[in-house]
């Protein structure tokens, strides 16, 4: 059996795309369904745990991944989704957080949700950044 390949067999034809000159998304980012997703996942995943510094890293990653996947299923075209989940222990301390943005105010958006449990606070921020 002759198994040698020629260069022609390995080459793939490059597709050429024309510019669409479309500046708006067909399915723009909507906050309401994203708020529901964040709230549902945060409550479901965090209601039965207590604060443990070693475990919370994995919990944050798991929650952020689940939220991102559910939001991607909404098919907001031309948006990059960034999910940040933070868990902070309740230990008689305070925390102050702020966000600053350099973005397109017409197209970019965000959604936040804070969950409070007996031993910790959890905050989720989802950023939808328009990408042409």
TrEMBL record:
Stored InterPro entries: Tctex-1-like, Tctex-1-like_sf
GO cellular component, as recorded: cytoplasm; cytoplasmic dynein complex
Molecular function in Gene Ontology: dynein intermediate chain binding
BP-aspect Gene Ontology terms: microtubule-based movement
Superkingdom assignment: Eukaryota
Pfam families: Tctex-1 (PF03645)
Transmembrane segments: none
Family: Belongs to the dynein light chain Tctex-type family.
Name of the protein: Uncharacterized protein
Species of the source: Frieseomelitta varia
